Known about the structure:
The complex is a heterodimer.
Chain A: H1 2-25, H2 32-55, H3 62-81, H4 87-105, H5 123-158, H6 164-168, H7 172-199, H8 207-228, H9 233-247
Helix pairs in contact in A: 1-2, 1-4, 2-3, 2-4, 3-4, 3-5, 4-5, 5-7, 5-9, 7-8, 7-9, 8-9
Chain B: E1 2-9, H1 15-21, H2 28-35, E2 43-48, E3 52-59, H3 62-77, E4 86-89, H4 91-101, H5 113-127, H6 133-152, H7 162-174, E5 181-185, H8 189-200, E6 204-210, H9 213-223, E7 226-229, H10 233-237, E8 242-245, H11 256-260, E9 271-275, E10 292-296, H12 297-313, H13 315-329
Parallel strand pairs in B: 5-6, 5-8, 6-7, 8-9, 9-10
Antiparallel strand pairs in B: 1-3, 1-4, 2-3
Helix pairs in contact in B: 2-5, 4-6, 4-13, 5-6, 6-13, 7-8, 7-12
Amino acid sequence: MDRWFLIAATALAAVGGIAGMWSVHKGVRSPWTVIWMIAAFAAQIGFLSVRGEARGACPLVGLGEILAFLAWSLTFFYLAVGPAYRISLLGVFTAPVVVIFQGVALLPGQLIADPPRVPGTDAWHETHAAMSVLSYGALALAAVAGVMFLVLDRQLKDHHLKSGLFRNLPPVRELLKSTVRLLWLGVALLSIGVFAGFMMPRQGGTAHLIAACAVWLSYVGFLAIKQLRGLTGRRTATVAVLLFLVSLSVFALV
Amino acid sequence: MELVCVGLNHRTAPVEVRERFAVPAGKLGDSAKQLLEIEGLAESVVISTCNRTEYYLAGEQAEQAAAELRRRLAATHGADSDPHWYEHHRISAAKHLCRVVSGLDSMVLGETEIFGQAKEAYRQALDAGATSGVLNRLFQRAFGVGKKVRTDTRIQEGATSVAGAAVELAEKIFGKLAGCRVIVIGAGEMSRQTAQALVSRGATSVFVTNRSFDKAEQLAAEMGGRAVHFDEWQAVLAGVDVVISSTSAPHPVVLPHHIESVRRVRKFRPLFLIDIAVPRDIDPACGDIEEVYLYDIDILEQLADEARTRREKQIIECDRIIDEELKKLNLPGT
């Protein structure tokens, strides 16, 4: 049952992304992407509910569940901050990322069929896991906004201004503001996650926590430089994308 | 019941003729009411803008009334204007109004100002009691058609002037221009137009610099901005978002090192450089700086040309919508 919810969420996000790309290609704005993404979000909640019921805890055991939770978090932030953008276009860029995360989660061996209950749940552990993955949703959306900026920046620099994509992309300054705001939000949530990580009872090695701290420090350092010294839009966007991709490696250490 | 449109516009009459027949903006209703003295005329609306003066007439003998109107106009304003007038009858008059309201008959294809001007002319005629069943229905339908044409086609898309193209790009970079700061280097006509277009969209803090300081002061006063001596403009660069340059200098005025020197102070914020001078004022190497978006006159003119071509391609679709909508009108006199 849970797997079907995730398959449905993946299919809905894929349809939303393709429909959005088609409307962008035609040079029109369509509200349909957000509608498909809302449907995908509902299916994601279905998956997490069934999985959470079975686990008796936040379903964040193993890479499959983490990626599914991350996809939910990304969709949640997209739907929450979408109105600040031209909503369907942010969806066009977000949907493929959601499809990739969930597609990997659906690969054989990533989601066990009958997940066992998590023994002796701990509030700090739950907070650490939930806040960390939630923060990754915000950081992922910052990376998506960064990609949108890089596309627009290239088009403006090269004077390629005819495409439907160019017409529908939000202004440079708004994309940069949104990227930075999402980074701050992600770092704030990650701070709670890392703090809870120090408070929870140790299980096994500390490599994961060290990696999480390294990610946190990288983002804080990056935002400090951006705030104090300033960074060009291109560097801000590039670093937001690269840091997110590198930070995904933390999950390999879970 | 007959329906007639009598008019002259920018295509049929030069400005020296059009200005003779212009009706003051506040007198359109009175003028329409006065026309009803002509025998056979029951309703009228007068539209008068800088590009056209048109009389929409409805009545049992509106065609005769139109001829009488032209005689009167010739008598009061001079007979030499007669070749400049055009007439549209019945459905052709209705279609013409729809095209006017939709901006298809305007000098700048698809412009929106005419919609408001026609609406105001109709309101004044209505208030003056110069309209009734036929023209009320016709104008209301025409406004509906005008909105549909603008919504369902791309007739308004893209800026058709250099200044307009610059403003569109500025909005693509900065979003709303409220709070944007602009420096104008060289107080020529093109810079004035471009800066004016930016100010009309909300840009504030306009700085103007020119080799002749008097000219800079004059343009700055016009824009509500501040004049800057020509040897001091680099100091202002750190605080602005847009640079418009249009001097007659034979060599580049804005060089990469000018921008490099203020990048840190600007915290690497986006900078939009508009070079509308020939020869160019801004060294093309400035465009290689990451946060700089550089556009010269050729690119801006190309954008405006493309927008005009796109709009022209939309005319057939607009006319199709107008024909379709007029078929539904079933108006007496058409």
